[in-house]
Design goal:
Elements: E1 3-8, H1 13-25, E2 29-35, E3 55-59, H2 65-74, E4 79-82, H3 89-94, H4 96-118, E5 119-121, E6 124-125, E7 130-136, H5 160-179, E8 183-188, E9 190-192, H6 201-211, E10 215-218, E11 224-229, H7 230-243, E12 249-252, E13 257-259, H8 260-274, E14 284-287, H9 302-307, H10 316-329, H11 331-338, H12 341-345
Parallel strand pairs: 1-2, 1-4, 2-3, 4-7, 7-8, 8-12, 9-11, 10-14
Antiparallel strand pairs: 5-6, 11-13
């Protein structure tokens, strides 16, 4: 049976990897990619499947009812996978209004229209549909030295970005509790892999090593994050859609907790050995810590492992080597993407007065 997906934010890092993963692993599918192509959206990420007859791109905003309703009018949408989000914490501190519009109002618009089209009346919905809200572990706030985030951990967001994602999650949950809406929420740890926007932590380090620019590190650099390869994340999302229990929340983690300095030092050492010996730790520059910076994230993904059977498959060291090599072999992609708004917005980090490590 053919399934039709509406993937929002499908030109971004995780969204584009998900679309590619689905086309590689499934035959009887159609994917409608709705993306407004803001600074982090890049259709080059989807060059591999651009000509696939199962793929349709629509440029538009998820908060625009006319655009979203037109898609539902044209296609029999069975799955909505909502990646669309403003996601950079530093930007959210500067412009929180933009994050509320996309992440909260946009999600509400998607929920309203999906509810309208999927409703059978009398508080029931089609059995073949599902709304998947792709969220983040940042909604949980910060951990101490011990413990992990579970699906029952209270939400305690500490940045405008995290607050907007938590708000969207609560709307999705409320639609389940109020209307019986067919939904799932996933909350994932930090992703790494190909096609990540250059202002993000790992590609930024790689690019700065290549150009011998300072690598800005917030505070002492000992903030801890759990890292997961984007392909393992995409596979988990697919399994939740196909096997997950409607209404449930699933945490997705890689069990790779490392400090930011661990990541910086690993990349420098790898590139010094394989690219240029002149790349060294001298590039590291400690800068004033970010406002409201969470100290540690750690994901307990026991639920998705035990109930759905998902396990991460990509070894972290192997995945990191492949990721660095991908960026090294796609320098033209980095230069092209970085020549746009990224270069303007973050131009100061390359020798100006203001610096950010673009961690998330």
């Amino acid at each position: 049976m053919n399934r039709t997906y509406l993937v929002t934010g499908g030109a971004g890092f995780i969204g584009s990897n998900f679309i590619t993963y689905k086309f590689e692993s499934s035959k009887d599918i159609t994917i409608i990619n709705l993306d407004s192509l803001t600074y982090a959206g890049n259709l080059e990420n989807l060059d591999r499947i651009r000509e696939d007859t199962r793929y349709v791109f629509v440029q538009g905003d998820i908060s625009d009812p006319v655009t979203v309703r037109s898609i539902f009018n044209t296609y029999d949408i069975q799955y909505v996978v909502n990646f669309a989000a403003e996601s950079h914490v530093d930007r959210s501190i500067d412009s929180p209004e933009v994050f509320v519009k996309t992440n909260v109002v946009g999600t509400l618009n998607l929920l309203n229209i999906a509810k309208e089209y999927w409703s059978l009346g009398n508080g029931t919905f089609r059995e073949d549909v599902r709304f998947l809200q792709v969220s983040t572990d940042e909604v949980y706030g910060s951990l101490g030295t011990e413990g992990l985030f579970t699906e029952k951990t209270p939400l305690d967001p500490h940045s405008p970005y995290a607050a907007s994602k938590a708000s969207a999650d609560m709307l999705v949950k409320a639609y389940r509790d109020t209307y019986g809406f067919p939904m799932n929420i996933t909350r994932c740890s930090n992703n790494y892999g190909p096609y990540q926007f250059p202002e993000k932590f790992i590609p930024l380090i790689i690019n700065n090593c290549l150009t011998h620019k300072h690598i800005p590190v917030y505070g002492d650099g000992l903030q801890i994050r759990d890292w997961l390869h984007v392909k393992d994340h995409c596979r988990a999302l697919d399994m939740v859609l196909l096997r997950g229990k409607t209404g449930e929340i699933y945490n997705i983690g890689g069990q790779n907790e490392l400090t930011n300095m661990n990541i910086v030092q690993y990349i420098i050492e790898y590139m010094s050995k394989h690219v240029e010996s002149g790349i060294s730790k001298e590039l590291i520059t400690h800068v004033t810590d970010r406002k409201g910076h969470d100290r540690r994230y750690g994901i307990d993904s026991a639920k998705i492992r035990s109930t759905i059977g998902w396990e991460p498959e990509i070894d972290f060291e192997k995945g990191m080597k492949e990721t660095i090599d991908w960026y090294l072999s796609h320098r033209s992609w980095i230069n092209h993407v970085a020549s746009g708004e990224y270069q303007t917005y973050y131009g100061l980090m390359y020798g100006g007065k203001e610096e950010s490590n673009g961690e998330f």
